[in-house]
């Protein structure tokens, strides 16, 4: 017994050190000429991205503000929506942008607020420069290093939500979709809301998408303007239906506060954006053509050509086999071969179905 215990004492540390880490992303950095500083960002890549058995697909990119705070949340939602056969969004690359000077980068103007005679957020008003950094420097690096498909989503909370809406108003073509979570539209006496009122009918948004998540209305005297301005923006502008080719939606989360609304805001923002992507799984083995029909509708709605992720079609083919529809499985594998002609996996699966041993 003593020898066994001694052996365990020797081996146990080795077992601990041999354990594999769970990794959801990696750290990168970029020196910004615009901001004159080094900027850090985190990257999440879909599981199939570096799997050489799958085709070299290209992916939409989510640019996530306050990445150091919200990166894990966004990755968790992405993985939830792209597992199995009931997918609610495409696999995406996620870029979490870390902060250096948050109030400087995310606010559109110099603060006019004072406390005890001192200006609050004195270094504010750098949103235009930060927007230039994201659009011209960071995106250039992401597009150069990774297989991106040109569909870009911006997500921001609080000051990040303020930045998101200002980007939509000032540079509507910068992103395809904008998700603003409890945005700080109160900034400088609601100047962004006032700007939006004047721009709403004259700006051509050219098929962009906007989703706003609003947390519970705060009755505290110093926070009432925060809630009331978001509500005004949503009810007076989004609900007006005069959106000039902007698909806009919003949701009030009565039981969530400014901090807890982040997760449901990202969750439902992405789910609303890609509404119509989830397939009628049980019907696919009898009619595989439903997939192409549904993705054509989705592509028309989003004004961008989307094709199903390879792993999704593979899972559906396996399901078709499980219900004894090998003919449908073959059609699905052929569909993957068409969409991903360089995929060893798709070719191998097709060969398995068509080989003499499996067709008997």
UniProtKB/TrEMBL annotation:
It comes from the Bacteria. The keyword Metal-binding does not apply. Keywords: Hydrolase. Signal peptide: none annotated. GO terms for molecular function: hydrolase activity, acting on ester bonds. Pfam families: Esterase. InterPro entries: AB_hydrolase_fold, Esterase-like, Siderophore_Hydrolase_D. Gene3D superfamilies: alpha/beta hydrolase. Belongs to the esterase D family. This is Putative esterase. It comes from Bacteroides graminisolvens DSM 19988 = JCM 15093.
């Amino acid at each position: 017994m003593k020898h066994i215990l001694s052996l365990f004492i020797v081996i146990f540390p080795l077992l601990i050190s041999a354990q594999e880490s769970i990794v959801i992303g990696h750290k990168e950095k970029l020196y910004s000429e615009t901001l004159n500083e080094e900027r850090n960002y985190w990257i999440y890549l879909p599981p199939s991205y570096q799997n050489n058995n799958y085709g070299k697909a290209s992916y939409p990119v989510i640019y996530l503000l306050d990445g150091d705070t919200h990166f894990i949340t966004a990755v968790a939602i992405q993985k939830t929506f792209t597992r199995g056969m009931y997918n609610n969004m495409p696999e995406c690359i996620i870029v979490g942008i870390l902060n250096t000077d948050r109030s400087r980068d995310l606010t559109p103007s110099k603060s006019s607020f004072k406390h005890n005679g001192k200006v609050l957020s004195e270094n504010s008003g750098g949103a235009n420069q930060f927007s230039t950094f994201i659009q011209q420097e960071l995106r250039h690096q992401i597009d150069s290093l990774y297989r991106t498909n040109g569909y870009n989503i911006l997500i921001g909370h609080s000051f990040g939500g303020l930045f998101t809406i200002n980007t939509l108003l000032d540079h509507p073509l910068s992103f395809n979709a904008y998700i603003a979570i409890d945005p700080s539209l109160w900034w400088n006496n609601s100047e962004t809301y006032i700007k939006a009122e004047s721009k709403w009918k004259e700006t051509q948004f050219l098929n962009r998408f906007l989703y706003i998540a609003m947390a519970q209305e705060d009755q505290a005297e110093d926070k009432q303007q925060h809630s009331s301005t978001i509500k005004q923006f949503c009810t007076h502008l989004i609900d007006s239906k005069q959106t000039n080719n902007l698909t806009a939606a919003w949701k009030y989360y009565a039981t969530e506060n400014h901090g807890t609304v982040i997760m449901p805001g990202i969750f439902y923002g992405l789910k609303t954006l890609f509404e119509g992507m989830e397939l009628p799984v049980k019907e696919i083995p009898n009619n595989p053509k439903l997939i192409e029909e549904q993705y054509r509708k989705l592509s028309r709605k989003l004004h961008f050509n989307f094709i199903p992720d390879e792993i999704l079609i593979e899972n559906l083919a396996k399901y078709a086999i499980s219900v004894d529809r090998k003919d449908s499985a073959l059609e699905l594998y052929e569909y993957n071969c068409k969409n991903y002609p360089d995929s060893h996996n798709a070719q191998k699966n097709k060969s398995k179905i068509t080989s003499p041993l499996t067709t008997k």
